[in-house]
Specification:
Layout: E1 12-13, H1 23-29, H2 39-56, E2 61-66, H3 69-80, E3 86-91, H4 94-111, E4 113-118, H5 127-136, E5 142-146, E6 148-149, E7 154-155, H6 158-166, E8 171-175, H7 187-190, E9 194-198, E10 209-214, H8 216-224, H9 235-242, H10 253-269, H11 271-291, E11 305-309, H12 316-327, E12 329-330, E13 346-350, H13 357-373, H14 382-392
Parallel strand pairs: 1-12, 3-4, 3-5, 5-8, 8-9
Antiparallel strand pairs: 2-10, 6-7, 9-10, 11-13
Helix pairs in contact: 1-10, 2-10, 3-4, 5-6, 11-13, 11-14, 12-13, 13-14
Pyridoxal-5'-phosphate binds at residues 17, 68-70, 95, 146, 148-150, 175, 177-178, 198, 201, 207.
């Protein structure tokens, strides 16, 4: 422990990634290193992979890559696109824009034509917009989009979109990095071909693992397409190793052990129960923000993260600094992108993973108190009253 650490000052990470990690998971990761080519490790890896498949609700293959969510998403994008084809990338926030940038970057080597659909930040793309894009580009080989756009706290109707894409020649790659394990998502039932997530959001692990779930159409596509100018991110390598319950390179053993325990916790609580809890925390937060007169940033709010615009006169870094220094509460600001500049104008709190009603009440109460300190006209206690009413119901 650092010498200046305050014992009676709990830190609560309520940013939409990374998120807090339960003690049982931290303890598991503190176990001694085991070699990755051993029966002992293989048994853990097989168990974790089975649990991941349950989490994604798929009978397909779930790959575990060392890297962040971006590593996993990039690997899916480049491994699944047909060279020489069109690809459709949909953005309404920072992460969707990143996926657009990645295909732009690979366009010369993959020879893909990147068809970009941009919706205003804070709005969700509709199934009709996706259908129109596919009708205009019937040979497109990929549709890439974000299920829960964390930068704008916005969720789209992935189920309806998957229905549209499954009737086309394209495979759907969904960034569900703040969807899986927080929002209802049923990969096989919905017909989503490829779903990507990361370890540090709803999966209650430190950053470091990316997951790529491949349904039947995505697995077929991998066989059809020859790998391009990339190596580590070629998913064919990972699928091939998976046939032997193995990873192609040194496995991040400690993270995988920790993830296995975190998934066991998820299994014990039950996925539906978790979805219900996340939705309730989000509903309570939205009620509290409404009571304080703060406007949501999203017209189609995701339940995994809530974002609001600051009232005039509140300075982002000072405000979040006060929450951190006075209350040990870590919340997120905004980001700048092509579609909007929200770096200093919004505040976001997470409802994913190891977060409960007490944490949520604490952050809402602290936000209210700090806004009042800054002279905002807010009825004392209104945020707590509104949130508690939802949480009690
Ligand atoms: C966090 C996040 C990412 C990026 O994940 P990294 O782990 O930072 O690479 C991508 N998409 C969404 C929606 C996210 O929330």
């Amino acid at each position: 422990m650092p010498a200046d650490a305050k014992i009676f000052f709990k830190q609560r990470v309520m940013t939409p990634g990374p998120t807090d990690v339960p003690p049982a998971v931290l303890l598991e990761m503190a176990q001694p290193i085991i070699h990755h080519r051993t029966k002992q490790f293989q048994a853990i890896f097989v168990q974790m992979t089975g649990r991941l498949a349950n989490l994604f609700r798929t009978k397909g293959t779930v790959l575990t890559l060392a890297g962040s969510g971006t590593t996993a998403f990039e690997s899916a994008m480049i491994s699944l696109a047909k060279p020489g084809s069109k690809v459709i990338t949909i953005a309404g926030g920072k992460f969707g824009e990143r996926w657009q940038d990645i295909y732009d970057q690979y366009a010369p080597s993959l020879q893909v034509e990147n068809i970009k659909i941009n919706v205003p930040w804070g709005q969700a793309v509709t199934a009709q917009q996706v259908a129109d894009a596919l009708a205009a580009n019937p040979t497109a080989s990929v549709v890439a989009l974000v299920h829960s756009e964390t930068s704008t706290a916005t969720a789209c109707d992935l189920k309806a979109i998957a229905q549209v894409v499954s009737k086309s020649n394209a495979v759907l790659i969904a960034d569900s990095i703040t969807g899986v394990g927080a929002l209802p998502m049923s990969m096989d039932e919905w017909g989503v071909d490829c779903v990507v997530t990361g370890s540090q959001k709803a999966l209650m692990l430190p950053p470091g693992l990316g997951f790529v779930a491949l349904g039947a159409r995505a697995q077929e596509r991998l066989k059809e397409v020859k790998a391009g100018a990339y190596y580590n991110l070629d998913l064919r390598r990972w699928v091939k190793a998976m046939a032997d319950n193995d990873l192609p390179f040194t496995a991040p053993v400690s993270l995988i052990r920790g993830q296995n325990v975190a998934l066991e916790l998820i299994e014990k609580e039950g996925l539906e129960t978790i979805w219900g809890r996340v939705a309730k925390l989000a509903t309570a937060s939205r009620a509290a923000f409404a009571a304080m007169g703060l406007k949501l940033i999203s017209a189609s709010p995701s339940d995994s993260v809530t974002g609001v615009f600051y009232p005039a006169g509140v300075e982002d870094s000072k405000f979040r600094g006060a929450l951190r220094d006075k209350y040990g509460l870590h919340v997120a600001g905004g980001q700048d992108g092509r579609g909007a500049k929200w770096k200093t104008s919004i505040l976001r709190i997470s409802h994913m993973g190891y977060v409960d009603a007490g944490d949520t009440l604490a952050v809402l109460a602290a936000i209210e108190a700090e806004l009042r300190t800054l002279g905002q006209k807010i009825d004392p206690g209104c945020a707590l009253a509104a949130a508690a009413k939802v949480l009690a119901g």
